[in-house]
Amino acid sequence: MGITSLRSQPEGAAPPNRRLAGIALMCGTLAFFACLDASAKTLAGLGVDPLLSTFMRYAVNVSLVLMVLNPVRTPGVARTNRLTLQVLRSLLLFGSTALNFLALRKLQLAETLSIQFATPLMAALLAGPLLGEWSSPRRLGAVAIGFLGVLVIVRPGVGAFQPAVLLSIGNMLCYAFYVLTTRKLASVDSTATTVFYSGLAGLAVMTPLLPWIWTTPTAWATWALLIGVGLFGTLGHWLLVLAHARAPANVLAPFIYTQLLWSVMLGYLIFGDVPNRWTLIGASIVIGSGLILLAQESRGRRRPAGAVGPRDPAPPQR
After folding, report:
1. Average pLDDT over the chain, rounded to whole?
2. pTM for the complete prediction?
3. Is the CB of residue 178 less than 8 Å from the CB of residue 97?
4. In this structure, what DSSP letter does residue 209 have?
5. Looking at residue 248, what is its pLDDT?
6. How many Cβ atoms from other residues are within 10 Å of residue 167's Cβ?
7. How far does Cα 86 stand from its chain's mean position?
8. How far is CA 207 from CA 51, 201, 211, in A?
9. C-alpha dihedral sign at 35, 38, 40, 42
């Protein structure tokens, strides 16, 4: 199945075996994204500039995407009805990646991911003024609870404040706007076109900076991690597309939060990190509010035809 033929599975249309396949692919997506974060954090610990890791993330991604979506073999894939919006979306994804990699130098995997889980809450809040998708008081209540969870994780004013938290919050904001631009583009461009443009801006921004950030790795393991950053991100995105082609978004959405299990496990096995109780409490609050939001959105889908339906949360992408 080519990416140019993939479409999101309508709710209720997928048979059980395809739904299970979609769930398995979604879990694979989240495992790859967790490995991506772990690789970036490992590279930072080895002294590799996070911006170099960001460059490799997009260099590998663009190379692989061009192999699959070569404009010569796939006519029209580069044709977009909203070039400015595609460039903006690509820049937002780049900003999210760079800020996340910078934050991972100081924060645990579970800490950055817990803050990123607030992305669908922020997207729901911004969808009103930006897309005209205004939230009900109940949804706003769920959003408020979620941001309370973020405050529990960050705990401003309690002990020594870690400035890297601001980088993680910036990552979350960039990704929230990325989600909204992706939603806007879904109605005007094909999935293949949007995938084609996803990594181009990041590569274009980082390439001129290479003379200042490049250091040639001397160990093969460092090279493997740098290439792995790109592979994990690209494979994660690919499995995500395949998952949505096999199961409806509302079935897949709750499994997004299983990424925290991967992050906690990798954080402990690789870095010896154990999340503190405030991170776990805050993450539980954020996840709970996200599930409340998802339940309200699922009920919204059962409204009469013609009513404006809500949207599902998306996993943090890199």
Report:
1. 86
2. 0.86
3. no
4. G
5. 82
6. 23
7. 17
8. 10, 10, 9
9. negative
Please report how many Cα atoms fall inside a 13 Å half-sphere around the Cα of residue 9, on the Cβ side: 25
pLDDT for 277 beyond 80: yes
Sign for the pseudo-dihedral over CA of 318, 298, 146, 87: positive
Instruction: Report which of 82, 98, 81 is spatially closest to residue 175, judged by C-alpha positions.
Output: 98
Count CB-CB contacts under 10 A for residue 137: 7
Which residues does 161 contact at the CB level (< 8 Å), separation at least 6? none
Can you read off the two tokens belonging to residue 236? 């994660």
Q: Are 7 and 242 in contact (CB under 8 A)?
A: no
Q: Which of 126, 163, 178 is nearest to 147 (CA)?
A: 126
Q: CA–CA separation, 294 vs 26, rounded Å?
A: 17
The residue written with tokens 């395949």 in the block is 242
* Confidence at 241, pLDDT banded by 50, 70, 90: confident
Which residues 6+ apart lie within 8 Å of 277 measured at CB? none
Output the six-digit token pair for 317.
């992408």
How remote is the C-alpha of 128 from its chain's centroid? 21
- Residue 65: how many CA atoms within 13 Å on its side-chain side? 26
